Amino acid sequence: MKDRVVIGIDIGTQGTKTAIFDERGQCLGHAFEPSCLVHPSPGVVEEDPERQLQSVCATVKKAIRISGIDKHCVAAIAIDGQTAGVIGIGKNGKHITPYDSWLDMRCAPYIKKMEVIAGDQILAKTGNVPSFNHGPKILWCMHEHPDIYEKIKSFVQPAGYAAMRLCGLEANDAFIDTTYLHFSGFADNNKKKWDTGLCQKFGLDTSKLPRIVEPDEIIGQICPQMADETGLAVGTHVVAGCGDTSASFLAVGAIKEGICVDVAGTASVFSATVPKFSPDVSYRTLSCSKAAISGLWNCYAYINGGGMNLEWYRNKIVYQHKSGKKFDYAKFDKLAEKAGHNDVPFFIPHMSGRVSPPMPALRGAWVNLSWKHGTGHLYRAILEGVAMEYGIYKRILNELVPDIAIEEVRITGGGQESKLWNTIKASVLSVPVVKMKRKEGAPLGTAILAGLGAGLFKSVDEIASEWIQKGEICDPIKVLSNHYCKKIVDYENLLTAINNWSK
Predict the structure, then answer these.
(1) The domain 5-245: what is its CATH number?
(2) Considering the entire predicted model, what is its pTM?
(3) pLDDT surpassing 70 at residue 193
(4) At what angle do helices 158-167 and 49-67 cross, to 10 degrees?
(5) Burial class, 317, CB count within 10 angstroms (exposed 0-12 / middle 13-18 / buried 19+)
(6) Which of 184, 252, 355, 480 is such that its CA lies 20 to 30 A from the CA of 65?
(7) Mean per-residue pLDDT of the chain
(8) What pLDDT shows up at residue 1?
(9) Backbone angles phi, psi at 319, to 5 degrees
(10) Which residues have C-beta within 8 Å of that of residue 109, sequence separation ≥ 6?
(11) Phi/psi of residue 177, each to 5°?
């Protein structure tokens, strides 16, 4: 019998990535297709769910062709995707609304409304405060477009939508897996069910909420039409998958308590794996989400578009034109190293509002500029801004879970290519930052779920040593740790001052 393979698919903000793996974790083929974000007006960010689906089909087909595998060897596929946005679907399972992206800011008034009416209860139940995520986005649709809301039969996320379409499922079979529930605004996350009390407070019809499933649950099989589109065999198992952040955590081996993760991608995410549901009721900063692996949780916070700031700086400030080239970290790192750390301005990385904790009115800024500051200083300030946010998150984590022992931070995403950035983060956090040898990212984690769902693996522990491999280590530099220990205090005060001014 031929070896079985699994396919992991990631519907990310920058595009869709698909990778095929054999049972030993070897990547046999991969493909990528860029996304098409639409900005019809200020603060509005949308995507076409049909185009997202087409990108899934196209990348799967291309990866199969590149790998040369027999389509009948595919044991299962799984899809992860952007976590905080929503798509409204009709009875037939097809979209009625565009994808309301996690970058879209229209729901800001409803963040405030949910916070005023039931903010503490939402945090205690879901593990997350109301922010630019499902709850406020659903309420925005309900109140601003009641005619469209009436037609919607369920709200889903891009990965769920694509999986449903691949299987030919209708709205009655709509699903959301447990790794998304902290962003729902309406779930009892610890009990893995919808909270009728929260729904009633906001007049939400619970029938418009999808069924809740486990990430490794088989939700259907590839239907004949989509078999032609994807190159997969009819009847291939489709596993639920998970949110993209959860997939990234799994891909770097965050499968036991105390492992921290830095997802240095479009969003800058800092996470720690903890053993129980631990909502951050004191600081309202860390989200507590169900991990992709049963029995574990991820306490994490993120900067909305933190990684996008580097592209923005290069394209709009330094070169003043949009570039399709890969970001040249080495070139900018050299300028930042020359600038040194003693006279670097502050940078506020929240260009579209702070998510952790919610400060919707906050905007980005360089502060404390002088005429001697140049390209390297400004770039280094961007790197430091993200790192100091991580420092705040880690301090809160230590208070929330006092017994946690953090030995290292594992990093994934494009930002891991900046050795300077890794060193700054290690120095701010006072723990080593470890790069991963594997570069597949989220699709690797999602493929593991596909293998679990298909029964190829009994547990993640069984395959971790072959699939998950650590690489270069960046240790903290004591002089930098001392420097940032003082600077982070001023940074926090600055955040408060600018946020109060922004209001």
Answers:
(1) 3.30.420.40
(2) 0.88
(3) yes
(4) 70
(5) exposed
(6) 252
(7) 95
(8) 44
(9) -100, -15
(10) 140
(11) -90, 165
